[in-house]
């Protein structure tokens, strides 16, 4: 008979079997256990310093508030080119080139006062102060018809002379001047107009400008005529910045040869009256704009500028009732028709 195992032995065998079965599974390594433990361990709470750093990083950036006075940015302007001072040689060359080009534009330039002799030119020039040559030319025919010589004018009735020259303005002062110079010509120069500057400037109402007009156009003696047009243009062209007529005359005489003085004066005065006006020069129609440092002071649009041209350049009558034969424009109308 087989003996029945006791309950204590059976229990011991089961325990042994369990241990053997459990021993068959590989044991995890110490490193793996540590890694698993780290994964399983919940993240530690951030310290206050770390919390602040994290908050800064996490906080969305707020847009900068524009300054109240800030204006839209404007594009930077190109740097201005500061012109270097013009050398004396450069100025002389540019001035003479302007004269040459004006000679091509105004080959017919001439004195714009009607006259038949030095006495008529002298009187007409004195009368042209503060008025136009046109108005003088419209006035002198009756004056010279009544008083053709210095002797006649010196012996005239002042009131009658005043009435004849009234259209020229300042007629009382001008009457005194022309009657005074007529008496001086009669008494000092035998009724003849002297051909020297020093004698002319001693006559009543006669200054350097008037003397140079008479010398250059009645006697062929070169001279610079510095009238308002001449002075304005030479300043615009930067030949000089002087306002004094005598200083301007001396400076310009030093730039040009003596043989050019009289015609230079006519050309500049012609240009000032026709194109380079005082208030609104016609820059867009100017033939010497490329030589002018003041280009742009006036109208630069060619079409608009052409509408500003005067006398023959604008298709209008000139200032002389009896212009020279080579003048391309029309004769001015007499006073009654003006």
UniProtKB/TrEMBL annotation:
Q: Which domain of life is it from?
A: Bacteria
One GO term in the molecular function aspect is: endonuclease activity
Q: Which SMART domains match?
A: ENDO3c, FES
**InterPro entries, per database record:** DNA_glycosylase, Endonuclease-III-like_CS2, Endonuclease3_FeS-loop_motif, Endouclease-III_FeS-bd_BS, HhH-GPD_domain, HhH_base_excis_C, HhH_motif, Nth
> Might you give the EC number(s) for this enzyme?
4.2.99.18
Q: Specify residue ranges for compositional bias: Low complexity.
A: 28-52, 60-79, 328-338
Q: Does the keyword Cytoplasm apply?
A: no
Q: Does the keyword Cell inner membrane apply?
A: no
Provide the residue positions that the database annotates as binding [4Fe-4S] cluster.
276, 283, 286, 292
**Which cofactor is recorded for it?**
[4Fe-4S] cluster
Question: What is the name attached to this protein's record?
Answer: Endonuclease III
Q: Which organism is it from?
A: Streptomyces luteolus
